[in-house]
Amino acid sequence: MDERSFKSIRVREDAEGKKGISVSKDVIEVGGHALKANITTLGPLVLPVSEQFHFFTNLLFRKKETKPYIPDYKLAFEHVCILATSKKVLDELQSHLELTEEYMEASRKTLERFGNTSSSSVWYELAYLEANSRVKRGDRIWQIAFGSGFKCNSVVWKALRNVRKPRVSPWVEEPN
Questions:
Q1: Which of the listed ranges 12-16, 63-67, 136-140, 144-148 does the model predict with the highest average pLDDT?
Q2: Cis peptide before 55 (omega within 30 of 0)
Q3: Can you say how many angstroms the Cα of residue 146 is from the centroid of all Cα atoms in its chain?
Q4: Fewer CB near the last or first residue (10 Å), C or N of the chain?
Q5: pLDDT tier for residue 1 given thresholds of 50, 70 and 90
Q6: pLDDT of residue 150
C-alpha cells in the first residue's frame, strides 16, 4: 500500500547476520487501516440492509465530535475466526468490533494452545468450532487474517449442514 505499511513487518538481518522477522511500532496503526479498508468493503456484502442504513445515515448526519458508528457484525455472522497473533490484537479487535467472549473463544483458545501460527490459526479456530459442535446449518463464519505488506483478507463461509464432531482434529485427543 505504502512504504510505512511495507516496512511494518519484514525480514531483516540483525547485527550478527541472523535473519528474522522485524515488526515495527507502526504495525498496530497500519493494521487498523488495513482492517478498516477490509470491513468497509465487506460490510455491504454481508450486513443486513437495516444495519447498512444505520451506518450510512450515521455517516451522513454524524457530528464531527462524535465517534463514527461501527456496524454490528454479530448480525452478519454466528462465528468469527480472527488471526490469533497476540492477546493485545485480539483484545483490540474485540473492543472495536464489540464482539462477545463467545465470538472470541476460538481465537483465544487457538492462541493459548498453539501460539501464533500465523495465517493457519484461522483454520485451527474453525477446527475448534467444529470439534465443539458449534457449526450448525445456515451459520455464517467470518475468517479474517492479516499479512505482511500490510494486508487484511476475509473469507465468509455458510454451513450447508450441521457439522458433527470430527474423529480427527487438532482439538480431539487421540485414544490411548
A1: 136-140
A2: no
A3: 8
A4: C
A5: low
A6: 80
Q: Which of 174, 169, 35 lies closest to 114 in space, CA to CA?
A: 169
SS3 string, the chain, reads: CCHHHHHHEEEEECCCCCEEEEECCCHHHHHHHHHHHHHHHHHHHHCCHHHHHHHHHHHHHCCCCCCCCCCCHHHCCCEEEECCCCHHHHHHHHHHHCCCHHHHHHHHHHHHHHCCCHHHHHHHHHHHHHHCCCCCCCCEEEEEEEECCCEEEEEEEECCCCCCCCCCCCCCCCCC
* Amino acid at residue number 19: K
Contact call for residues 125 and 81 (beta carbons, < 8 A): yes
For residue 131, give the amino acid letter.
Answer: A
Question: Which residue type is seen at 23?
Answer: V
If you average pLDDT over residues 44-57, what whole number do you get? 92
Instruction: State the Rg of the chain over Cα.
Output: 18
Chain centroid to CA 97: 10
The C-alpha cell that represents 88 in the structure block: 493485545
